[in-house]
Amino acid sequence: MAAVAVGKAAGAAYGHGESSGGSGGFLGPRVPAEVEAMARGLQEVGKETFRRLLKVTVNALEGKDCKDSVKLIAESTDLSEEQLAFLISGMYTLLREALRLPLSTFKQEVFKEDLKELRRPVSEGTALMQASRLPNVQDFKWRVDVAISTSSLARALQPSILMLMKLSDGTAHRFEVPVAKFQELRYNVALILKEMNDLEKRSILKIQD
Amino acid sequence: MAASVVPETDSIRRAVLLLNAVDPGRFPRLLSRLLQRLHLKAETSFSEEEEEKLQIAFSLEKQDLHLVLEAISFILEQAVYHNLKPASLQQQLQSIHLDQDKAEAFANAWAAGGQETIEKFRQRVLTPQKNLKKVFVEFSHQELFEFYNKLETIQAQLDSLT
């Protein structure tokens, strides 16, 4: 099983200083036009349609092709193409900016406040944020086994590692790691840590909480 | 000396007779080839053309060729299982009446490629990785650092085994 570790180093500098009070929070002092337009347009959009639009937006952010999904939505609602364009581009911008924030800076409460300012349905917004983030490791257990004897080798004495990873999205993964693969993992993690260190040293603007 | 690792079954007896009769010239190459692919037992079979070439090269009928190939594979698997020394292998084979030159060929091939083959068997994980799926996980710097420390602990345990 391959677990890909994605380290989020200090990302773009987004002053998340005071969020509420009409400053737009993570979107900066001026809310982008398309986000405003989207917020207004969403008043008439039903929950189901909103969910589908959300899905399309997330797919677009992940680089997937969404032409067909958008067509489907257009056909099944009575939104004009123009309206759809506003909605999707607004949601896209909103999410893209929110996702540029480093994990530690992103605080649910503050985000909810920001969304309220934009008159967005709060619940759906945060649900989306959770879905776009990758889960992190909640619990990590391991075991080193040694195979004494197998059908191929009377005296094998071959070590292997068993891992159990519980993630924040509720899933659990139990898998065996051959020693060679384990060395690869250890090497790559060390490499990423080194790169993170280098990045943080070089980063002029450090996000402080 | 280890107990006999190659039982004298009817198949083995017949295989030995056939082996003793084949041309010793190409024999070493055949042994090396089989030894290299031993750990892939499932896909070891030669292609149709290769089989036909072998039949001609060793003057063996299809059935007999199969028997010979099976026997050689079995002998080599036993050598792996018991981690035989080349000399032991040769002795064992001569004791079941394989000609000395052929037994020596086995010993030489085993001496040359035996350890490598044993290593390949060692690495062969019992759980085939067919349920492989990709899982994406996110780590902050701090989280990754903690994870790394756990990996180092595991490594320390591995080191204490040797």
From TrEMBL, chain A:
Pfam families: COMM_domain. It comes from the Eukaryota. Belongs to the COMM domain-containing protein 5 family. This is COMM domain-containing protein 5. It comes from Gallus gallus (Chicken).
